[in-house]
Amino acid sequence: MGKFKAIIVPEKGQPAALGEFDEAALMDGDVTVAVEYSTVNYKDGLAITGKAPVVRRFPMIPGIDFAGKVESSSHPDFKAGDSVILNGWGTGETHLGAYGAKSRVKGDWLVKLPSGMSARDAMAIGTAGYTAMLCVMALEHAGVKPADGQIVVTGAAGGVGSVAIAVLSKLGYQVAASTGRASEADYLKSLGASEIIDRAEFSQPAKPLGKERFAGGVDSVGSHTLANILSMTKYGGAVAACGLAAGMDLPASVAPFILRGVSLLGVDSVMCPLPRRREAWKRLATDLDRGKLAAMTTEIPLEGVMEIAPKILAGQVRGRTVVKIGG
User: Fold this and answer.
1) Is residue 58 within 8 Å of residue 21, measured between CB atoms?
2) What pLDDT score does 302 carry?
3) Weakly modelled stretches of the chain, pLDDT under 50
4) Is residue 265 within a helix (H) or strand (E), and if so which, with residue range?
């Protein structure tokens, strides 16, 4: 037992800071992991800045996902040396999280790293990319096919949006990317978007029914944006909703649901059952172009998380950010 470097939120209302954490103070769990990489998601930005009450236990090591190697395990599915991924399950919120060199968790929370995928790639994908894959799987389950028409992805230049565009385009879908950053048009097209839409088109109150435009959508924005997307979805289409960057409200009408048979698909990544998690990571290993993943990814050291956290909340971070921790 010893101390390791970590980002720590000491008390409610106090700022997160880089410091040392005693391994003996790690929480209960049957697997101890040497963390190699983490990432920065929107929720991590909230936890670091304190802009929302994400952290509900103190002191807390933030960070909602990691990839690393098992140091010790009493769980039957894992042994020392196994490469594993963790996403969600309250880590960084109620359970000590990923922004430290070690983490002790329940083995039932872990997924084995897919063959051929590195720990760095796994965190380049991270919760944002894993959530994007869950959204794609939800659209597929709802019967939305490439031949049905265009899929709109909102918050397109962010983590969820970037991975969603890359995966959807590889699967043969036509993708329209909605963004407030016109300067990212070339980046979004390089990921596979065929059309760029100014997010202002979706920022005003929605009509009960708009012109049928999209076969489906992946939305990480919420509020008026989601309401507009629903109103413009074609008969029998579906929209996967996974985020609230513009707000938790949904000022929409029932008209798309009862007059066009549109489906609103809620996607949760935090408590998602293990079989679906494993399927999502299996799909990410095959359905996400590694070259596109590399193009959307930047790497920072652990101390860099403090600087990038407010930027991700302000919508100033493009694509995915990997945090190098150990290994």
Assistant:
1) no
2) 96
3) none
4) strand 263-266
Residue where the block lists tokens 């070690």 = 102
Q: What is the pLDDT of residue 326?
A: 87
Structure tokens at 204: 């005003």
Q: Are 129 and 288 in contact (CB under 8 A)?
A: yes
Query: For domain 3-113+296-324, which architecture applies?
Result: Alpha-Beta Complex (3.90)
Instruction: Give residue 209's pLDDT.
Output: 98
- Per residue in 94-126, is it b (16+ CB within 10 Å) or e — as a string? ebbbbbbbbbbbebebbbebbeebebbbbbbbb
CATH code 3.90.180.10 region(s) in the chain: 3-113+296-324
Q: What's the CATH code, domain 126-266?
A: 3.40.50.720
> What is each CA distance from 202 to 40, 45, 75, 169, 205, in whole angstroms?
27, 25, 48, 22, 8
What pLDDT shows up at residue 327? 64
Q: How far is CA 34 from the centre of its chain?
A: 22
The pLDDT assigned to 1 comes to 64
Pull the structure tokens for residue 295: 């193009």
pLDDT at 53: 87
User: 271, 276, 305, 222: which is closest to 46 by C-alpha?
Assistant: 305
